[in-house]
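Milestone M4 deliverable, item 7.
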Amino acid sequence: MLRLTRAPNIAIAALWADALQQAGIAASVQRYFLSGIAGELPPDQCLPEVWLTHDEEEPRARELLHALQNMPQR
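Output delivered:
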């Protein structure tokens, strides 16, 4: 498994993981429920993360994630 990225919130993490899965890339969200203890732990340690199941899918996953993060404005 390989950590692809941290997301700013759980909604974005879920959207990114779902988009990767729709593209055929096995991905999951880790640290799903840690936002509830932010303050007890440093906030940056509580951000949700998107992980890949297969490391060899990283280049394709990064391309897709970059495209999702840089969509043109309407």
